[in-house]
């Protein structure tokens, strides 16, 4: 169980996913968590669903009592106003942890003051599973011990140079999206070929899970497993040939590059 109080500014999808995980697995008690959102119905919902405290309008007491403040608004939102609230009411030793995609530690320091612990995190979205890596970069005032329990409460963490966080966002944290889309497309392929939807779906899930387990278990490169699975003139190599004709690998790689580029762009949007 982690010690201290944490306060979320922004009670949207990502804040909810984190709260659901850390309260659900006992990393925090609901009483240790408060949430502020522009929309009162949102904090009321989070209070009812998870027992966390809906913050007052000024957030004064919640900010003053928090060991860690989590900025969970969008990059396009009014970060300057969020910064004013934090620098006016939070204690100088409180850690400020931002999950805002693209927004740099330097920019955050401009809003909340440079001489305090600031942690830039891109949070993993597989929060309910214990799997998936968040990426974190710390300023000189922050220590891993201040954030470790929180971050491990909704998955795993990789500490990175800040210069790699945008790449980690587009590749790693957006990563499940590529896999979800692949699984959907694969199941559709089974249906297109004539399998009932239910069988196509369960087979796709089993194959993805099994392929990961096989890679981990064997330690082989995917190309080596492909070679074993593709008999000369057989089924698998015909499928691969067509996949190569579709520009599959380059299409996927272009989409990761677009996600990384968009992360950096979002970090530069000012409301
Ligand atoms: N969703 C995801 O999968 C991921 C999201 N992130 C990052 O997490 C952050 C939040 O994303 P997400 O939860 O999806 O976004 P949401 O839009 O679901 O949540 C943001 C919430 O904050 C509210 N809000 C805006 N400004 C303020 C303010 N000044 N004070 C209090 N509340 C405010 C918003 O209200 P309103 O709608 O009226 O603006 C909204 O309810 C983003 O910066 C995103 O980059 C990172 C990784 C993954
Ligand atoms: O799409 C988004 O804005 C968030 C950030 C990274 C993944 N999803």
From TrEMBL:
<keyword id="KW-0641">Proline biosynthesis</keyword>
<feature type="binding site">
    <location>
        <begin position="72"/>
        <end position="75"/>
    </location>
    <ligand>
        <name>NADP(+)</name>
    </ligand>
</feature>
<comment type="function">
    <text>Catalyzes the reduction of 1-pyrroline-5-carboxylate (PCA) to L-proline.</text>
</comment>
<feature type="binding site">
    <location>
        <begin position="9"/>
        <end position="14"/>
    </location>
    <ligand>
        <name>NADP(+)</name>
    </ligand>
</feature>
<protein>
    <recommendedName>
        <fullName>Pyrroline-5-carboxylate reductase</fullName>
        <ecNumber>1.5.1.2</ecNumber>
    </recommendedName>
</protein>
<keyword id="KW-0521">NADP</keyword>
<dbReference type="InterPro" id="IPR029036">
    <property type="entry name" value="P5CR_dimer"/>
</dbReference>
<dbReference type="GO" id="GO:0005737">
    <property type="term" value="C:cytoplasm"/>
</dbReference>
<feature type="domain" description="Pyrroline-5-carboxylate reductase dimerisation">
    <location>
        <begin position="162"/>
        <end position="266"/>
    </location>
</feature>
<dbReference type="Pfam" id="PF03807">
    <property type="entry name" value="F420_oxidored"/>
</dbReference>
<keyword id="KW-0963">Cytoplasm</keyword>
<dbReference type="InterPro" id="IPR000304">
    <property type="entry name" value="Pyrroline-COOH_reductase"/>
</dbReference>
<dbReference type="Pfam" id="PF14748">
    <property type="entry name" value="P5CR_dimer"/>
</dbReference>
<dbReference type="InterPro" id="IPR008927">
    <property type="entry name" value="6-PGluconate_DH-like_C_sf"/>
</dbReference>
<keyword id="KW-0560">Oxidoreductase</keyword>
<dbReference type="InterPro" id="IPR036291">
    <property type="entry name" value="NAD(P)-bd_dom_sf"/>
</dbReference>
<dbReference type="GO" id="GO:0004735">
    <property type="term" value="F:pyrroline-5-carboxylate reductase activity"/>
</dbReference>
<comment type="similarity">
    <text>Belongs to the pyrroline-5-carboxylate reductase family.</text>
</comment>
<keyword id="KW-0028">Amino-acid biosynthesis</keyword>
<dbReference type="GO" id="GO:0055129">
    <property type="term" value="P:L-proline biosynthetic process"/>
</dbReference>
<dbReference type="InterPro" id="IPR028939">
    <property type="entry name" value="P5C_Rdtase_cat_N"/>
</dbReference>
<feature type="domain" description="Pyrroline-5-carboxylate reductase catalytic N-terminal">
    <location>
        <begin position="5"/>
        <end position="102"/>
    </location>
</feature>
<comment type="pathway">
    <text>Amino-acid biosynthesis; L-proline biosynthesis; L-proline from L-glutamate 5-semialdehyde: step 1/1.</text>
</comment>
């Amino acid at each position: 169980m982690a010690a201290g109080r944490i306060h979320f500014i922004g009670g949207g999808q990502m804040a909810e996913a984190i709260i659901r995980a850390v309260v659900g697995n006992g990393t925090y008690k609901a009483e240790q968590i408060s949430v502020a959102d522009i929309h009162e119905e949102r904090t009321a919902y989070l209070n009812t669903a998870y027992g966390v405290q809906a913050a007052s309008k000024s957030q004064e007491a919640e900010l003053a009592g928090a060991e860690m403040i989590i900025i969970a608004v969008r990059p396009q939102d009014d970060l300057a106003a969020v910064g004013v609230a934090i620098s006016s009411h939070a204690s100088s030793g409180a850690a400020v942890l931002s999950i805002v995609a693209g927004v740099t530690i330097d920019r955050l320091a401009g809003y909340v003051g440079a001489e305090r612990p600031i942690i830039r995190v891109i949070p993993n979205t597989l929060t309910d599973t214990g799997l998936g890596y968040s990426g974190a970069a710390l300023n000189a005032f922050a220590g891993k011990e201040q954030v470790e329990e929180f971050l491990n409460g909704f998955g795993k963490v990789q500490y990175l140079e800040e210069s790699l966080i945008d790449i980690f966002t587009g590749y790693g944290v957006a990563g499940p999206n590529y896999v979800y889309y692949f699984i959907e497309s694969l199941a559709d392929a089974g249906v297109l070929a004539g399998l009932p939807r239910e069988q196509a779906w369960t087979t796709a899930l089993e194959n993805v899970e099994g392929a990961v387990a096989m890679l981990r278990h064997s330690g082989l490169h995917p190309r080596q497993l492909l070679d074993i699975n593709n008999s000369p003139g057989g089924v698998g190599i015909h499928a691969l040939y067509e996949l190569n004709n579709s520009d599959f690998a380059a299409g996927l790689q272009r989409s990761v590059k677009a996600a990384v580029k968009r992360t950096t762009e979002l970090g530069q949007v000012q409301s």
